[in-house]
Amino acid sequence: MMPRLLRFLAPLPLAIAAAEEPVDFNRDIRPLLNKNCTICHGGVKQAGGVSFLYREEALGKGESGKTVVLPGDPAASELIRRIKSEDPDEKMPPPQDHPHPLSSEQVALLERWIQEGAPWGEHWSFQKPVEPPLPSLANSSWPKAALDRHVLAKIEAEKLSPSPEASPAEWLRRASLDLTGLPPSPEEWEAFQQSHAANPQAAMEAAADRLLASPHFGERWASMWLDLARYSDTFGFEKDPHRDIWPFRDWVIQAFNADMPFDRFTEKQLAGDLLENPEPGDLIASSFHRNTQNNTEGGTDDEEFRMAAVIDRVNTTWTAWNATTFGCIQCHSHPYDPYPHENYYQFLAFFNNSEDVDLDDDFPRTKFADDPAAQKDAVRLEQEIRRLRESLNDEAKSLATSLGDWRPFIATTATSSGPAGKLSPQADGSILASGTNPPTAIYTLSGPTSSFGAIQVDILTKHDDPKTWSERGAVISKLEASLVKPDGSRQAITFKEVVADFLAGPFDPNDAIHDGVPGFGDYPMSRGPRRAWFVPDQSITAADGDQLEIRIHHGAVCNGNNQSCILNRFKISLSADPRLTALLQTPERAARWQQHQSLGQQYAAIPGKMIPVMREREAAATRETRVFIRGNRMTRDAVVQPAIPAIVGGTPGDKRLNRLDMARWLVSESNPLAARVLANRLWAELFGTGIVETQEDFGSSGLPPANQPLLDHLALRLRVHHQWRIKPFLREVVLSASYRQSSKLSAKLAARDPKNQLIARGPRQRLSGEMLRDQALLVSGMLSRKSFGPPVYPPQPEGVWRSVYSGDTWNTSQGEDRYRRGIYTYLKRTSGFPGFLTFDAPTRDVCSPRRISTNTPLQALLTLNDPAHIEFAQAFAKRMSGTTLEERIAHGYRLLTLQDPPAAVIATLSKLHADARIDYEKNPAESAKLAPGPDEAALVLVANTLLNSDIALNR
Amino acid sequence: MNLFQQLRFERARHTTRRHFLQNCSVGLGGLWLASQGHGATLKKDPANPLMPDLAHFAPKAKRVIYLHMAGSPSQLELFDHKPELTKLDGKECPQEFLEGKQFAFIQGVPKMLGSQFPFHQAGQSGQWISDRLPHFESMIDEVCFIKSMWTDQFNHGPAQLLLHTGSALLGSPSAGSWATYGLGSENANLPGFIVLTSGGKNPDAGKSVWGSGYLPSVYQGVQCRSQGEPVLYLSNPDGVSQALRRRTLDALNDLNQRVATEVGDPETVTRIAQYEMAFRMQIHASDAFDLKQEPEDIHQLYGTAPGQESFANNCLLARRLAERGVRFIQLFDWGWDSHGTSAVDDLKTSFANKCQQVDQPIAALLKDLKQRGLLDETLVVWSGEFGRTPMKENRGGVEGSFVGRDHSPSAYTLWMAGGGVKRGFSYGETDPIGYEAATNKVSAHDFHATLMTLLGFDHKKLTYPYQGLDQRLSNVTKSSRVVKEIIA
């Protein structure tokens, strides 16, 4: 059908203020202003100095000096005069761009509103939910739970009545598919029937409990969450290579199965890495925001795509938790809602300090141990190693920064090995590189020296203004130094350690005194000037006439291994102070290095996979966050600190907030949105349409709730009563009178409430792509119930995967992996699994808050003709048992629907079977392609027909 | 009848069909839904979202065939004649050309590179062209060049997304999706937006370049194949004849009709119609993709050989699909990324081979559309996703022995033919070395605004509400203008 997203199309009739009732700003006026005025007079533009975003602005004067809205006096309000004006140069909205002027009713409404004092109201979703009073009802026997009372109040207000209760079969199949994504097995149905006959309520409660406790519960609900998490098994973008991040998918499944409360679920995914004592799974959980895309296309700017990932994290967080179009304020203040432009960068600052930088290896990564029991040790070791390494650096750094006698090393010669490269010593002692210096350029400097204890290297930025810092990184791969005697003999200096201003990025500064991997510097982008101290084994004694020769090797490349990270400007200084050299020689320090090495060995010895993880940069390495002027990362403005927008409960304070504080705010009582958004999402999963239909937008550009008392009740029920536990919440809903209704509907009700927002009938939804596959596997007896692990490759047509620069191939899984649940299917961003994409699954490129159900011929072709679906039909046909054809058909029908087939259905399918059999008997070669004999082949067609029937495709 | 009247007529015909379905089955589809966008009132029948729709005004083009050379061919070796650059060949690139620029692969100070092939003037219009496209040259008087295209993306994936969806990031609908959303499909038995690929790979940005983004998925491009089944799952399974398929559908319709009556869900009725359309698509798509039906002279014209995956075959298929009323036909040919790092991406050899592969089929497509009277109402567009640098690539800071150019976002050439654009015309210029678009610059957003205009839409009014904005192809957050100067 047509998208449910066409949200402006035919919403439920808006209740407009009746003549005697006062005008309600949110219900009556804000939508008028938003639709007709705020696009030019709001957060983006304030044409003529007029804005309708805040009351004080609307009550102010425009550039013309006239008062826009004068409470109590419509005639003196410029707003009304301009709307009513007949002069095309004055009339609002301007007739050339707005061919449809406001109707006379709408104008009258605005006048009445001003007459009544132009009261303002905060948009509904910014006000905290309050438990609504229980409504009084005409039919008090129908409700089973408080939620039903709110549903019924609306139904009664519309002069309708609820539908009768669904049959046990309809309810059980619906609840099973809704809760576990699988239809009931014949045994489960049999048992339910018996207990239902004895005690319907007890039977339904027991069934709900069984379904909620099923290990398949998490597999079904993870699909919903993974759409939001944009989980995929590949990086995205051009090359779209494989990414091992499936342990995150498994973590989500397990969290749903364990009914982890949503507040903890939130903290772990947004800030698991910042928890004081992380549990073994918490680092894996923090991979939530490592599901962003990573661009490995040759030559792409790593900083551009790091920033794209950070922006995606901001937008995803706001979409998934708060259903807010926060992305709007990346470039300007929100057009409709009171979010100023800076709010975006204040919030972005929460995410701007993670270590990941769009590198091809997905750095940083954490270990997912093969043996779950070893995960605890892996997490502990990782933390200990990091802390120890930082403390070793910090100890030496605090001494290095206290040395006072640094003097510049003046190079008398400075050359680059690049044939077209050039080094120019500057007056301030720094050295500037120019020309073409290849990634492996070697700089050689030499000049007179006296005795020294340590070498200080400053890597400087090309430009001095921090606003312009978007420079490529600069990394010293190795630094060598020698004393050259007047006679030409050389004395190589050996270094003990490299001490850095801070530790960040994929390289260890100490590697700058060894061959091989790069060592010290900012990579792949420069955050600003860097400083390191190269400390020799012992103080160097130089005699008169001795020259110091320093060779700086490069080797780091960024932007998909294409651009060199060489030093553009740097400065070298020397200190004669021997204390730093002495500190590094102490046995205590040697013992700690020994321990560091041994912890590293223990960590390496744990077998496992490395998966991308969130990791915060240390305090000294914090990245500055600046406002991007008009959203452009190349034009930077003032520095901002992390903060939560005031409109949703943020309060200024002295403490610098971090990601964990932000995660805790999201699920706190002070955030008016998250509980409503989640309750609405769960409701939409069960009923097909959310109470707020625009699940992705609770702002004033979204649709208002069809039943706000119901939404607020559910939100508080979820957050307060159930303490954010999803299972008891779902239990309450599936056992409610609302959910129990039959989904049959009259033409009248279909026309009146096509999206079932009144809930005057039970839900009827098409199965998702995953459910369709899983149901077919289950009824055909082929379903593997194996959980977790690397993604699998069920059959898909040849040639679907054809990514550039990728040797990845789809190797169809063998054995039971061929028949796993849909959630375990390999998901490649640039080339999705056709069986899911065709049925409206998103590509997982970005956060997808809602799947819009469509109904297309390509879906029909898939379920009719896909060889995988034929395989299902063949197995399903074999399972249809009975002594007569009619019995076999009836059995198949019951397996799929739990119901006995009407005689006419048996007749139709028997006739199909008879016709097909005659055909196959004439054409045994054709028949043999489907089944051993004509009779069985004809039954495969019957099975294929049943699996394609509307009743099978829906729940 | 002009195009506008024709569309009106077709719409009326389909409306009648809709009423027929509605009255003869159980309440098909339910409501007509009306948008409340600014000015535009786009109504969509939920049961038939691809029904032909009226444009805002009389369209110049009824359909589009977009030939995308993925990887981006060099404008400096084909259409943008730069004698000044030839004079600078081998000299070091001046610093001011490098300041503030981002390159994918060029490092430090590269050398200038003159065109590798001679240019001459061709046709009555006297437009400049190199010697690499002799067949295409014969049709040059039909062609309208824009030599001043520019983009702000210097990598393939993002640049392709920007050119086809109006945004360099994933998630926006492609031009073809907008066209089918706005105009529907003229052929109920084929997808309205069809994509064909050649060169052995999908384009860099993957299937997102024909994705429907935030538009309903029914408007996404359907990737068809010139080898094997043209549409995924189009063929009946082994052992199921078309007659048996018909029987199973009859039985299925029986079952579903019962459900429709009993449950009353309008979706069930829609589903019956969609299964019937799938059945018709099996026949019509197979027919449309059967190149064997073409006579020998046509195969000679295009240089086609049925059964292969080739750009030539795709060009011929494009004509067959255009004849059948497919709204948007997009061809991606992979292999144009001439960096000059080895023989496979060398300008002198591999680029020349690619030119040879596409020259004859493109000329044939234009000629064939013209001889069938289809060129006037079909807009053919050709481009890469960006241009190539006037500097020689020096990957890794080293001069290679092969010749190539790096990505250059600041200037590239796009041409159009037919469908309401000026014939034998050239618009916009680059600077004397072909580095930056200098006069009459055209961005992707300007191109989209122009494309929508040619299809009969006010580009600011064909919108869809998403994330709080009335979104459009020409990108509501960016400036754009209709390039009226190229419209005939």
Largest interface, and how many residues on either side? A-B, 120 and 107 residues
The radius of gyration computed from the alpha-carbon positions of chain A, rounded to a whole number of angstroms, is 34 Å
Taking Cα atoms only, what radius of gyration of chain B do you get, to the nearest Å?
24 Å
Task: Estimate nothing, just give the exact number of structural domains of chain B.
Answer: 2
Number of distinct helices of chain B? 11
- What is the 3D form of chain A? globular
The total of beta strands of chain A comes to 20
Largest sheet geometry of chain A: 7 strands, antiparallel
**Integer average pLDDT of chain A:** 92
**Rough outline of chain B:** globular
Strand content of chain B: 15-25%
Q: Considering the protein shown, what is the CATH homologous superfamily of the largest domain in chain B?
A: Alkaline Phosphatase, subunit A
Strand-residue proportion of chain A:
5-15%
Q: How helix-rich are the residues of chain A, as a percent range?
A: 25-40%
Into how many domains do the coordinates of chain A divide?
5
Mean pLDDT of chain B: 86
Biggest beta-sheet profile of chain B: 8 strands, mixed
CATH architect. name of the largest domain in chain B: 3-Layer(aba) Sandwich
Poorly predicted regions of chain A are: 1-15
- Please report the distance between the alpha carbons of the first and last residues of chain A: 16 Å
Secondary structure class of chain A reads alpha+beta
